[in-house]
């Protein structure tokens, strides 16, 4: 059955502060976790104020998850307990599988204009892989393929495939897809999706209509005032769309503005989630053990694992 996905819910990213004082916007995270399974959190750290990002994210641990950092402008210096270090800049991706445990730091630097633009997505790992050997992928911009359709839609393929072209990140247990899609003005675009997978779109430029739903009251909107009759028909920068199940999505733009959005999809894990800070396990006992090991100095199980 050829079934279009409908909008299940729309979220507006909200300001928060993380790390040593980094001002960012959180699209989702630490709430309604089953809705986004296998994803846990999406942070938008775009800023033109260096004081809001230079404090960075000093050394901290992770276990049981993957963190995916996508930079559009500026640089992020990084280092970890496996001996990896370097800089990711405009168009680069850092895909880190924390697995059994890793400590790392991420220190943002602005570009020549003092801007930093990027996003960090957290993806969960199933119980069978939470204690896997950590690994790290440093994907430079020139390794990320770009495909263009006949109607001018462009897709940067970080993970997954589009038009017969595969992204550079493979062998991920939750079978994820991560695309950066730009739809020109006055254009309609359709994209197939795997039935049963969770699908999300985060708008980062312009405005768009998804799945033909132009009635802003046709879906639930997180953070919207139910008595606000000025809600927009078109979803704009900083909006997150959670889709219901189906086989494809449809996106259309206005006559005067293009739209750019990040499209994520993944296979739900459907397991209990025990989450505290940077550690995500299945039970409270596993969480307590992780923090106990961290304080004892036995948290790190593997010290060398580098994938380029």
Summarize this structure briefly.
The chain has 308 residues and is mostly beta strands.
The global form is: globular
Spatial extent as radius of gyration: 19 Å
Percent strand: over 45%
Number of strands: 26
Mind sketching the topology for me?
Elements: E1 7-12, E2 14-18, E3 22-29, H1 33-36, E4 39-44, E5 57-62, E6 65-73, E7 75-80, E8 85-88, E9 93-97, E10 102-109, E11 117-124, E12 135-139, E13 146-148, E14 154-159, E15 161-162, E16 165-166, E17 177-183, E18 188-192, E19 198-210, E20 220-222, E21 235-236, E22 239-243, E23 248-252, E24 259-266, E25 274-276, E26 279-281, H2 284-296
Parallel strand pairs: 1-20
Antiparallel strand pairs: 1-22, 2-3, 3-4, 4-11, 5-10, 6-9, 6-11, 7-8, 7-10, 9-12, 13-14, 14-17, 15-16, 17-24, 18-23, 19-21, 19-22, 19-23, 19-24, 25-26
What distinguishing features does this structure have?
308 residues; Jelly Rolls; mainly beta; 2 helices; 11-stranded mixed β-sheet
Describe the structure.
There is one protein chain. With 308 residues, this protein is mainly beta. The protein has one domain (7-296): Sandwich (Jelly Rolls). Helices cover 6% and strands 46% of the residues. The strands form 5 sheets. Strands 1, 13, 14, 17, 18, 19, 20, 21, 22, 23 and 24 form an 11-stranded mixed beta sheet that branches. The radius of gyration is 19 Å and the shape is globular. The termini are far apart.
């Amino acid at each position: 059955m050829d079934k279009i996905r409908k909008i299940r819910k729309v979220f507006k990213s909200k300001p928060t502060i993380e790390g040593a004082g980094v001002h960012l916007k959180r699209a989702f995270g630490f709430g309604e976790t089953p809705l986004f399974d296998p994803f846990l959190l999406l942070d938008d750290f775009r800023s033109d104020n260096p004081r809001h990002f230079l404090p960075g994210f000093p050394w901290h641990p992770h276990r049981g998850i993957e963190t995916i950092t996508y930079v559009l402008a500026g640089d992020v210096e990084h280092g970890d307990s496996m001996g990896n270090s370097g800089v990711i800049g405009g168009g680069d991706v850092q895909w880190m599988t924390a697995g059994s445990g890793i400590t790392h730091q991420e220190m943002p630097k602005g570009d020549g204009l003092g801007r930093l633009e990027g996003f960090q997505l957290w993806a969960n790992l199933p119980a069978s892989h939470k204690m896997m050997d950590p690994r790290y992928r440093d994907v430079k911009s020139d390794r990320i393929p770009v495909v263009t359709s006949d109607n001018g839609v462009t897709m940067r393929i970080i993970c997954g495939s589009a038009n017969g072209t595969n992204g550079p990140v493979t062998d991920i247990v939750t079978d994820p897809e991560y695309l950066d899609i730009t739809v020109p003005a006055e254009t309609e675009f359709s994209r197939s999706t795997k039935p049963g997978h969770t699908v999300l779109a985060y708008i980062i430029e312009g405005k768009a209509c998804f799945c033909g739903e132009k009635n802003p009251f046709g879906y639930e909107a997180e953070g919207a005032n139910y008595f606000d009759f000025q809600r927009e028909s078109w979803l704009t920068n900083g909006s997150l769309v959670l889709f219901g199940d189906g086989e494809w999505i449809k996106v259309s733009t206005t006559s005067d503005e293009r739209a750019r959005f990040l499209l994520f999809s993944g296979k739900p894990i459907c397991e209990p989630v025990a989450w505290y800070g940077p550690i995500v396990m299945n039970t409270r006992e596993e969480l307590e053990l992780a923090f106990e090991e961290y304080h004892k100095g036995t948290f790190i199980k593997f010290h060398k694992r580098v994938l380029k």
